[in-house]
Amino acid sequence: MTTPGRRISNRIRRLRFDHGEMTQEELAARAGCTRQTIIALEQGKYVPSIELAFKIARVFAVSLEEVFQYEE
Amino acid sequence: MSYRKFRIWKMMVVIFVSVLLGWSIANDYALVPVPAMIAGLVVMRLLKWGVKEETVDERVFSVADKAAMLVFRVFVLLSCMASATMFALNRENTDLEQAAFTLAFSVCVLLLFYYLAFIYYNRKYGG
User: Fold this and answer.
1) Other C-beta atoms within 10 Å of A34: how many?
2) In terms of CB atoms within 10 Å, which end of chain A has fewer, N or C?
3) Quick check: A32 and B56 CB within 8 A?
4) Interhelix angle for B95-124 vs B58-88, to 10°?
């Protein structure tokens, strides 16, 4: 786990609402993780592995950069 | 089965195995504890098979790793301090020597296991 929330942000919550108001539970099931992990991601408390990041991006059918942003 | 139901069943299995262990220790039945614990683990594994939701993922493993590392460090440090203190107090109370040796050797075995595990995972992940 890298330092959470400081350099990497995400738009998971916005993307969920834009995709038919998908629930956290549904996103977790489709990404293969727990609902608690989705909550932690949205709160910026956890930075996912590359594998999980790709899985989440694939759920929304968008590129990785549209989901996660790296801030200098 | 939902994760919530699994947790209830898990608690019941733990309580049952704990009662069985307590009863066997109180009645000097030495052959009961190990099979009881193995049976409990098998039952929990079978129950977990039926759970549809994800119960653990990378974040849980990551958190568990951090917690385990912290506990390991604290345990080793406190055990060394306790062991040293018991050795120092040995002259006043000779029973402490055995306890001190047990604690000290436990720490040594733990450190040895950690060292071997570190070598294994370091090689596995390209070290």
Assistant:
1) 22
2) C
3) no
4) 150
Q: How many C-beta atoms lie closer than 10 Å to residue B84's C-beta?
A: 13
Helix (H, G, I), strand (E, B) or coil at A71: coil
> What pairing do the DSSP bridges indicate for beta strands A8-10 and A68-70?
antiparallel
State the smallest CA–CA distance between residue B40 and chain A in angstroms. 25
Residue of B53, B59, B66 with shortest CB distance to A37: B59
Residues of chain A whose beta carbon is less than 8 angstroms from a beta carbon of chain B are 1, 28-29, 32-34, 36-37, 40, 46, 48-49, 51-52
Contact across the interface for A34 and B55, Cβ inside 8 Å: yes
**What band does A2 get if pLDDT is binned at 50, 70 and 90?**
very low
pLDDT tens column, B48-95 = 888 876 678 899 899 999 999 999 999 999 999 999 999 888 777 777
